[in-house]
TrEMBL record:
The keyword Hydrolase applies. NCBIfam families: sortase_fam. This is Sortase. The lineage of its organism: Bacteria, Bacillati, Actinomycetota, Rubrobacteria, Rubrobacterales. Keywords: Hydrolase, Plasmid. Signal peptide: none annotated. GO terms for molecular function: hydrolase activity.
């Protein structure tokens, strides 16, 4: 049962790589991410005052296993990273320091036993609207996100990787239970940026500054969380 679950959960990570010439049809199943064009001469992604080392750290207080976990930026076919780390930032998607971006992080619901991936996103269904999520870049700048949406999508729905005009959002992805056939998605909006010296950066955002409230949606797995609590033996 465990090995079967591992095989199923592994399949949702994008088998294809992000490049400028491929198309979605080349993904042999699994959860597809749009093929994103890269910009020559440094690229737009790293040009907006971001650190050269794009490794991130992720803390989700609502999740028992995600605290200051290192998140590398890599493609979804990098199985070595999927085993070595709690989650990965999908190469070709945005970063916290960008004005407009979708910072897309995917983690295993079950994962690989005896690795850092094991059960890391098991309790992602406990993350609720209004909860905070913290991301830190390699320079020590901390970005606070507030959850505004939870939803479940099919394995071929790539809309959740899109950016939203004028927003920097964070997207977390894992599989649904019990059969891992769909994708549980949590999205959060950047509300505060604090640099390594402890002060707000010039890019600090608040909902009040923008004069709008994030959209509220119901819990994506409400009613199923109790049936799928973390096993005591794990």
């Amino acid at each position: 049962m465990v090995l079967a679950g591992v095989a199923l959960i592994a399949s949702f990570f994008l088998a294809g790589r992000l490049d400028s010439t491929a198309t979605n049809s080349e993904d042999p199943g699994g959860f597809n991410v749009p093929r994103l064009e890269t910009t020559t001469g440094g690229g737009e992604e790293t040009s907006q005052a971001g650190p050269q080392d794009t490794t991130l750290k992720l803390t989700v207080p609502s999740m028992s296993r995600i605290e200051d976990d290192e998140i590398p930026s890599t493609d979804g076919g990098d199985e070595a990273s999927l085993k070595k780390y709690a989650a990965i930032h999908l190469e070709g998607t945005g970063f916290p320091w960008q004005e407009e971006a979708n910072v897309y992080i995917a983690g295993h619901r079950l994962g690989y036993p005896n690795t850092e991936s094991w059960l890391t996103f098991w309790d992602m269904n406990k993350v609720g609207v209004g909860d905070e999520i913290f991301v830190t870049d390699s320079d020590g700048t901390e970005y606070t996100y507030k959850v505004f949406k939870e939803l479940t999508v099919g394995p071929s729905d790539t809309s959740v990787t899109s950016t939203e005009p004028g927003k920097n959002i964070l997207t977390l992805q894992t599989c649904t239970l019990p059969d891992y056939s769909k994708r549980l998605i949590v999205q959060a909006e950047l509300v505060q940026t604090v640099d390594a010296r402890g002060g707000p950066s010039g890019r600090e955002r608040t909902e009040a500054d923008r004069g709008r409230s994030p959209q509220r949606t119901p819990r994506a797995e409400e009613g199923r969380a109790v049936a799928w609590q973390l096993p005591e033996s794990a």
